[in-house]
Amino acid sequence: MKILSVCLGQSQTLPGKSYRTGIFKSMRAGPVMVDGQGLLGDAVLNRKYHGGPDQAIYLEGALTLQWWETQLNRQITPGLFGENLVIDGLDNRDLAVGDRLSIGDVLLEVTAPRTPCATFSARMEDSGFVKRYTKAARPGAYCRVLQSGLVEAGMIAEWAASEGDRLMLAQMIGKSFKSLDPQQRARYLTFPIAARIRAEITATP
What we know:
The chain has six helices and 13 strands. It has helices spanning 62-72, 118-124, 129-136, 169-172, 182-188, 195-202, and strands spanning 3-9, 12-13, 20-21, 25-27, 32-35, 38-39, 57-61, 85-87, 100-103, 106-113, 141-147, 149-151, 158-160. It starts with a strand and ends with a helix.
């Protein structure tokens, strides 16, 4: 595997909307620094739902983006889904919480699936895209940064699947974490899951 693109966002306003967003991302040439908060220079606006140590990097597998191209009958340019990294040879359906990705000195750990939102639908110019993305069950991955360093397109990316029981991202998308039964709740909490999801699971009903 290797990195096909590294994308950074700029603060922009969506057509017809009053708020600004960092979902508009474009490919950058040359190395970009990664620290505990993500890619240096990447715009993260709504921090209630985006960014933070457990959602520092958002990545998409190239195989999944190619699948979306066939489904949508359009080209998926780098950054269109708001991703920071596109990984060649990766299918999002293979991702699980706790999987790790090594890129040079950088070490990432998968923490959560993408939760599609109205901003994503507006970016795709399709009011029904949230439902379509959820139904497809091929979510991109949020990652925390375990080791900082530089990344750039063309670098080798080594994927290490978590061992033992695997909490697949495809099984998590669209799920109400507040509604998990006690057995499911206990299982989810054994994984290095994102803090936002952990808080939702442990919230008092």
